Amino acid sequence: LSGGERQRVALARAVVREPAVFLLDEPLSNLDAQLRTSARDELQQFQRRIGITTIYVTHDQIEAMGLGDRIAVMQGGRVRQLGTPAEVYGDPADTFVAGFLGSPPMNIVEAAADRLVGFRPEHFLPREVHDGSGALVALGFRVTRVEYLGADRLLYGVLEDKFPGAKVIARLPSTVTLPYEGGRRYEFAVPEKELRFFDRTSGLRTAPRPV
After folding, report:
1. What CA–CA distance (Å, rounded) separates 192 from 64?
2. Which architecture characterizes domain 102-206 according to CATH?
3. Angle between the N-to-C axes of helices 3-16 and 33-50, in degrees from 0 to 180, rounded to the nearest 10
4. Does the pLDDT value for residue 165 go beyond 80?
């Protein structure tokens, strides 16, 4: 049997026992990347069809975000945050969650002696790309390296002016066709509403403050 077929047999055996809860411990870990994509879809359809609560253990954040109605992010046996995928990704409870979810993870820079500021790479865009619907925090960005990934580009570099020297990453969708080169400075910005603030000592989320 193929890897995918063995997974289906294992699930069928579990269903026959009519469990109250399914516990799936990294069920797709032995599958290749292409098969994982189709297997995730089959698993979700299967779970919706039988309607049995399922606890799914995984180190793969794509599986967690794509399959979970609620996600528990754990570190060292401790739950760092519990919420929907949108809540955990968009409003991380601390710097561990912010750095764990997302590829690339959230940019986190030192804003003051007692606090850190975070923002997602997909919100860190050229200033002229933003639609102007809200307040922006302008950031001078010197690009050091560009990665072309097909659907998007990753721009690696350091901030200037505000938070000077902080290393950050920008994720530009393919719809942004402006050219960018390593070694040059560009004017980027982040919507103020997308900034997340953390206590520097504890790493916990704090209330928004001016930057």
Report:
1. 28
2. Beta Barrel (2.40)
3. 20
4. yes
